[in-house]
Structures are given as structure tokens and as C-alpha cells.
Amino acid sequence: MAEVAGLHYEIHGSADAPALILSSGLGGSAGYWAPNRPALAEHFRVIAYDHRGTGRSDRTLPETTSVADMASDVILLMDALGVERAHFIGHALGGAIGVETAIRTGRIDRLTVINGWRALSPHTRRCFAARLALLHGAGPQAFLEAQPLFLFPPDWIAAHDDALKAELAHHLAAFPGVATTAKRIAAVQASCPRSRRSCRAGEPAGDRHP
């Protein structure tokens, strides 16, 4: 198992290819990218990692964490692997980490954010608040069973219902715990990276520049 400073990571593809970092969403697992890795590894040195507090990485988080802390982990990983510059693909929370890393370092060449944001819209903020209420009020299984409602349209859920049910046991086994998940949601809710600017709750990110 490859690990640096408590962060588990995997590398796929040629060492001579351009580096590409993959960062997943709230679940934090490098395994999220398994369907995409073979195609990406044909062109890049793919680096996928488990976020701190999730997966095979160190499960211990401080009392509070932030997207900035998560970006620091990306920088730590790049430094440890001798990666001066990299492309970056992030899903949801992983996209926010990529934005923060790019703003702080200038070491991200091309940044792709999937299903992400720079600041939470009022709708997305309400979704995270509802997910947090489910987590505390009904527990991890109800939280995970409801998760597709916040991620996919109704027709897609209906067409993939059997697969979603089959995946539930895997997601429960990998669940990082109520406290860690709540801390990660709090980090999402607090994040609004704006270089030298303040963040107003609910303000569309695209209206202002770094």
C-alpha cells in the first residue's frame, strides 16, 4: 500500500506521462475513479488518493477540518511524489479542493470540476443541510439510501435502482463514520475560496473573479 503522511494513494500509467490527480467527492475514496482509470492511464500518470479521514488513509481528523486543509494534503502529496505541476480532475468536494489548490499554488495546469461549485448555491446548501440532518437523525444507512436523491434525476434512479441497492452494503462498509462525515460536510458548507475577497452566503461564484 502506497502511503505518505497518512494519505493512501495509487499511481497508474507511465511515469513519463503528464501527472493527473483525481480527487473524489464527499465519500473521499480513490476507488470512485476505477471505471475511468484505464482510459486516463493511457495518456497520463494518474494519481488517485483517499482523502484524509476516509478509505485507506488516516481516519483521524482534527476537531475541525476545511477545504483548505484538504488542499494542503494535495500539495503535500505532490511534494512527496516530486510532482511540480499536474492536471486535476475533481468531483464535487474534490472539485472544490482542486480550485483551492489552484488558487494557492499555481501548480495546477488544467482543472476539470465535475458536478462541483466554487460557492454553494442556496439549493445545494439546503441539500447538504438535509443530508446532515439525515445523518444525525436517522443514521448512516438512511443517509446513504437517500444520497442518490441529491445526486441523480428520478429517471436515472428508477433505471438503476437494483444497482444502487446492491452498492449499499459496500458503501456502508466503507463509511468513514458520522463524526468524520459531519466534519467534511461542515468544511463544504464553510468553503468559498476567493482570493483577497470575502464570501457572501449563497452568492453565485461566477459573478466575481479570484
Q: What is the fold's blueprint, element by element?
A:
Elements: E1 3-4, E2 7-12, E3 19-23, H1 37-41, E4 45-49, H2 67-80, E5 86-91, H3 93-105, E6 108-114, H4 122-138, H5 140-151, H6 154-159, H7 161-174, H8 178-190
Parallel strand pairs: 3-4, 3-5, 5-6
Antiparallel strand pairs: 1-2, 2-4
Helix pairs in contact: 2-3, 4-5, 4-8, 5-7
Would you tell me which CATH topology of the largest domain applies?
A: Rossmann fold
Strand order of the largest sheet: 1-2-4-3-5-6
Order of helices and strands: EEEHEHEHEHHHHH
Q: If you average the pLDDT, what whole number results? A: 90
Q: Radius of gyration, Cα only, in angstroms?
A: 17 Å
Number of beta strands: 6
| Number of structural domains | 2
- Unreliable residue stretches: 200-210
CATH class division of the largest domain:
Alpha Beta
Superfamily at the CATH H level of the largest domain?
Alpha/Beta hydrolase fold, catalytic domain
What structural class do you assign from the helix and strand content? alpha/beta
The CATH architecture of the largest domain can be named as 3-Layer(aba) Sandwich
